[in-house]
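Example 333, ligand iron/sulfur cluster.
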Amino acid sequence: MRKTVSFSKDAANVFFHILTHCNLDCRHCYINPEQHGKSTLPLSTIETWLGIFGERHSGANVIFLGGEPTLHPDLSHAIKKARKLGCRSVTVDTNGYLFNDILSKVKPDEVDFFSFSLDGATPETNDAIRGKGCFDTCIAGIRKAVSRGFATSLIYTVSNHNIHELDSMVPLLKELGIHRFFIQVIGIRGKSAGTEPERLQVHRSDWLHKIPEVADKVAENGITVTYPKAFLTHEEPFECAGLIADNYFIFPNGRVYRCPLCEDFPLHSMMMKDDQLVTTDKINENDLFELNIPEGCVMNKLIQPGNLSYYYDGTPEYKVACCMLKEEVRSKP
Ligand code: SF4
Ligand code: SF4
């Protein structure tokens, strides 16, 4: 069963970067220290900020991320605080190193998902992107989490460097006992923006041919799959999540974005100032969300124009969807 997950004002998603430091140095890392800073938030600030978003939206989904969030010595306290505030779900995005013995400090009913990142079905492919030894460490981390009763998900960021191993993820996901599989498209931001971007993103025809096919195979094994819709026909409606959904991407330097494609620029529409959430002056990302262009997403046209194709008369052949519009595939009941 495949469905497009439409944007909703009712569900708020708080992507909380509690630090930007990481033990790895992945080739495609989207963290940009110039824009996101290098600080680690103290627990008291994390709790205060969680309280502010908790008050704004009771029942928000909170995703702790970094950098590597398990490097934060107080992550377990932050998780418990989010639970206490009544967050609908709590997820930890991790590279699998699981620092600070995090699995011993929280219980499976406190964390909805430990979400692991793996970018290849073999050490050769994954470690060429994420660093030597990462594949084995991540697999060991997943096994440990599963054996302790935690629900796990896995994020695979597709690029020209690893699309050839996506099929091989099907048996691996099943064998590991993964509950949800997220296929992600590589964004031309952070480090990827500076390194031959045209060679990173897969061509539209490869994306449309490969991704839905693998998603179906994974779902046949009872694993729910989510992947970006990425491209729209002219008949399909275009919507900008920045105008409809309630997503917050919070960085430790206080910037709060509504659109992840804006994160490489000082375009954040909100920020934390003296522990208050305030709106920023114009021009900011909100002014871009309103623009209506035939290519669909305006930020894509600005920073990833290689995704677009035009007919001879200058009309776009298709539209690029909001990066947050997802397809979800579940096995048939
Ligand atoms: S694990 Fe994540 S934060 Fe760390 S270097 Fe890789 S992409 Fe960046
Ligand atoms: S990715 Fe594009 S469509 Fe989505 S929120 Fe950002 S600007 Fe809007």
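Summary: The mean pLDDT is 94.
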